[in-house]
Write a structure and sequence with these properties.
- The protein has one domain.
- Helices cover 75% and strands 0% of the residues.
- The longest helix has 24 residues.
- The N and C termini lie far apart (51 Å).
- It is a multi-pass membrane protein.
């Protein structure tokens, strides 16, 4: 059990490190626009104070975080040139971790998505 917990903690640290690298790398001019767009969406989702599916919903609340975030990071890494990724990985390891940025734009988009879904459901039920 302790080994499994240690493995999960290691994976969480890796995701956090990859998010830091992604935060540095997405602004690089050598990164193609489609990789920047995906990286921006992934970072926005990661740092948004509001989840797409709230965590209080059993299973689904955490399942979206466990699938969406690693998938976005993995695809972003594949789209960013490897030399750029390696360069910013070294840079992220050399700089101390900063406070978690918050994306209010992403929060606004998610709130808008929920309001739109509620409006659609209300009109559909009428």
């Amino acid at each position: 059990m302790r080994q499994q917990l240690a493995r999960w903690q290691q994976l969480a640290r890796q995701l956090k490190q990859q998010l830091r690298v992604l935060l540095l790398a997405w602004r690089d001019p050598r990164v193609p626009w489609y990789a920047k767009a995906l990286a921006m969406c992934t970072l926005g989702y990661a740092f948004s104070p509001i989840d797409l599916i709230p965590d209080f919903i059993p299973v689904l609340g955490y399942l979206d975080d466990l699938l969406t975030l690693p998938l976005g990071i993995m695809l972003s890494i594949k789209l960013i040139p490897s030399i750029v990724w390696q360069e910013y990985t070294i840079k992220a390891q050399q700089t101390p971790a900063q406070a978690k940025p918050v994306s209010y734009i992403s929060a606004g988009l998610i709130i808008g998505l929920w309001l739109g879904a509620a409006w659609w459901a209300f009109n559909w039920l009428r």
